[in-house]
Amino acid sequence: MTHQPGWYPDPYDPRLVRWFDGQQWTQHSQAVQTAPSPSPRKLSTGSIVAIVVGAILLLCAIVAMILGVVALVAFFANIAQGVVCGESPHYCT
């Protein structure tokens, strides 16, 4: 089985490639060429603005839900006090 001439992984050093002339290995070698790592993806200004606005809206919704729960608790506490104490406030002093 014969191989075509070309650069092949060096059988003696995995960090190198060595030239094979089709019959034998030559003395010509070089470092393995690595592909450059892709640059990190950058967000556009519009995307950043959308994320910030979405986070603010989410925070506002959470605060509104908490305030709604507090208002409901206060409302039902007033109803419960009215039932327990009756109409006359002097029962619950």
Order of helices and strands: EEEH
- Tell me the Rg in angstroms: 38 Å
- How many strands appear in the DSSP assignment? 3
Helix vs. strand class: alpha+beta
SS summary, helix count = 1
Helix/strand layout:
Layout: E1 6-9, E2 16-20, E3 25-31, H1 45-85
Antiparallel strand pairs: 1-2, 2-3
Protein described:
- By secondary structure, this protein is α+β, with helices and mostly antiparallel strands.
- 44% of the residues lie in helices and 17% in strands.
- The chain has a 3-stranded antiparallel sheet, with no helix packed on it.
- The protein is rod-shaped.
Short description:
This protein is an alpha+beta fold and 93 residues long. The protein is 44% helix and 17% strand.
Question: What attributes characterize this protein structure?
Answer:
alpha+beta, 3-stranded antiparallel beta sheet, rod-shaped, 93 residues, single chain, 1 helix
